[in-house]
Amino acid sequence: MQVFDFEKDIDMKKLDKTNTRTEIQAPLSSKGRFWRNLYRDRQLYLFMLIPFAYIIIFAYVPMYGLQIAFKSFKPKLGIWGSPWVGFDQFVKFFKSYQFSRVVPNTLILSFYAIIAAFPIPIVYALMLNSLTNDRFKKVTSNITNLPHFISVVVTVGILTQVFNPRTGLYGSIVMSLTGAYPSDPFKSAENFRHFYVWSGVWQNFGWDSIIYTAALAAVSPEQHEAAQIDGASRFQRVLHVDLPAILPTIVIMMILRCGKVMSVGFEKVWLLQNSLNLNASEVISTYIYKMGIASTGTTDYSYSTAIGFFNSAINLVLISLVNWVSKKVGETSLW
Amino acid sequence: MEKSIVKFKKHVKHSPGDKVYYAISYIIVILLLLVVVYPLIFIVSASLSSASAVSTGRVFLWPVEFSTLSYEAVFAYKDVFIGYKNSIIYTLAGTLINIIVTMSCAYPLSRKTFQGRKFFMKIFSFTMIFSGGMIPSYLNISRLGMIDSIWAMLLPGAMSVYNMIIARTFIQNSIPTELLEAAQIDGCSDTAYFFKVVLPLSTAVISVIGLYYAVGHWNSYFSAFLYLHSKDKFPLQIFLREVLVQNQFDASMIFEDAENVVQRQGLQELIKYSMIVVSTLPLLILYPFVQKFLKKGVMIGSIKG
Predict the structure, then answer these.
(1) Which residue does chain A place closest to B51, by CA atoms?
(2) pLDDT > 90 in chain A, percent
(3) Minimal CA–CA distance to A284: which of A100, A65, A152, A87?
(4) Which residue of B has its CA nearest to A33?
(5) Which end of chain A lies in a sparser environment, N or C, as judged by fewer CB atoms within 10 Å?
(6) Per the CB < 8 Å rule, is A316 touching B156?
(7) Could you count the other beta carbons within 10 Å of the beta carbon of residue B54?
């Protein structure tokens, strides 16, 4: 910290010599320093102008708009002019039958995704890392990373084609085994969750493993050699050398993941949703969309904003909580 | 010393326990590999098969009754070209905007003495964990008059804070501060330093985040779905959704001579496969060349700074 100040002071002196006309000569009060630095960094502020305007217009103005969650929004009256209604919109949501459907659906989908998708990249990274053939490792990781870059629409397209009950692989296999076509797997609420979660695993397990692979590359070979001399088998070395080495990374990734428990993305759910699997596939984000944008004539902006606000508030609390816990326990944290 | 260790490692034979471990590991990894690759091969093979082979489910691994009919159908389908053209425009223009905004944000924030650095970082980072949500954003865009305009595709996502932090970390860690000091002594302004030193030394990170942005633009359908209404502005992903998910493709539009229903139905299925291939082709062609860069981003991003 002291070095930091020292550097600043040097800058001050330089400025004093060059800009004697505009700048105050008095000893460095904190106010004077502020204006001086403001002048010194003027070009840097110019760089910040567009990004700052961007974040205000496209991130903070919508946050300002969140107040309509506590209002009865009328487009004619505008955001500020609409009358306050307090927590009415929230109460309406908590009391509606949709609440007991969309909140559990969101949570189940999210936890299922965490349980299925979180350990697989770790196990995969540990296994791949322990293999001996470098060429094989490289080719394998390149191929398994690929699906991450396929769009959601195409992923769902591939899924529906492969599991098509008539023309797809699934249909043909069941047909050749039992002699009859199966029923459409996409039209059942039970299957929706499996499709959602496992297509996500298919897309991302390779990509998600990169961060662990990178952490594993930093493990010093000496540790392995020492363990080998002590007679540890390869599997024991995975458990007692590799795994502890990537534990901090695992904790960080877990924090990041937990903060997103309530934010089930809209895109894939929307693509997989149909009228027959609504019981499992109606989640908070799709419900917001239907209430706020899709329903023609009866769009309820305030109500849907309130649901969204409820959702992101819980997210914020969750990520802060998990961060706090991990700071206490594991001494690793996001901020 | 080091040599002897290497020798020792090479000559050691795996114990029976290790052999079992390796065998199991290889099998599992190969299985995972197949799970990833097989659907992709199936899609390509099906797209190259005949309509009847696809509709009766006879394609398992390789093309059955090889035919390019489905590709002819795709290229006769006008919407694909509209979508392709729009997607290319959005991807190129969007990525350019992204890079300009991201770098001009990352540069001042990478300067340790920049006054207000912490304040700006907080303002930007906060948006990563909290946002106005779908409806206020939608109202905002519509108040700005960007509904059904190309700007709705380019501006709302003009910068990703995550990518900005990657760029900032990169500049901070890979460009020595001595360079800045030397430049300042020579009377180099902050702007000149950015263009003459920072940008040329940041080509690696620019290509990484540029690729992320480009893939994001190419693949995105949500903002188009939300903000665009007219067909001539739709990106490829929206047309893909119509054909793949909503089955809104009428084979008779293209092949009037496909008289009988079965054949038409077969075509309707067939064109899905070729559309998947055609829309993913740019990615598949570029991937081998750029995958190194794509991976690099994860490494830079994982360093907290």
Answers:
(1) A167
(2) 12
(3) A100
(4) B115
(5) N
(6) no
(7) 29
**Residues in chain B within 8 Å Cβ distance of A66:** 132-133, 136
Each residue's pLDDT, cut to its tens digit, for chain B (305 residues) gives: 444 444 445 545 678 778 888 888 899 999 999 999 998 888 888 888 877 777 777 777 788 778 777 787 788 778 888 988 999 999 999 999 999 999 999 999 998 889 889 999 999 989 888 888 888 999 899 889 999 899 999 999 999 998 998 899 889 888 888 888 899 898 889 899 999 999 999 888 898 889 889 989 999 888 899 899 888 899 999 988 888 877 766 655 555 555 556 666 677 778 888 888 888 888 888 888 887 777 777 777 665 44
> Can you identify the CATH homologous superfamily of domain B78-233?
MetI-like (1.10.3720.10)
Is the Cβ–Cβ distance between B136 and A62 less than 8 Å? yes
Structural contact between residues A68 and A81, judged by C-beta atoms closer than 8 angstroms: no
Q: Do A161 and B194 touch (CB under 8 A)?
A: no
All structural domains of chain A with their residue ranges: 2-81, 88-330
- Each domain of chain B, given as residue ranges in start order, spans 2-76+249-302, 78-233
The pair of structure tokens assigned to A206 is 């390779």
* Cα angle for residues A273, A291, A105 (degrees, 5° grid): 45
Report CB contact under 8 Å: A267, B33: no
Nearest Cα residue in chain A from B9: A225
3 state DSSP class of B202 = coil
pLDDT at A179: 80
d(Cα B271, Cα B92) in Å, to the nearest integer? 27
A88-330: CATH topology: MetI-like fold (1.10.3720)
The CA distance from B136 to B260, in Å, is 50
Residue type, B119: F
Which chain A residues are closer than 8 Å to B137 by Cβ? 58, 62
- Note whether B54 contacts A316, CB cutoff 8 Å: no
Taking alpha carbons only, the member of B180, B178, B216 closest to residue B107 is B180
**Chain A environment of B220 (Cβ under 8 Å):** 151
User: pLDDT tens digits, residue range A26-60?
Assistant: 556 778 888 888 888 889 999 999 999 999 999 99
B160's tokens? 């990703």
Judging contacts by C-beta atoms under 8 Å, the chain B residues touching residue A64 are 132, 136
Q: Are B278 and A160 in contact (CB under 8 A)?
A: no
Count of alpha carbons within 13 angstroms of residue B291, beta-carbon side: 20
CA of A155 vs chain B CAs: smallest distance (Å): 9
Average pLDDT for A156-175: 84
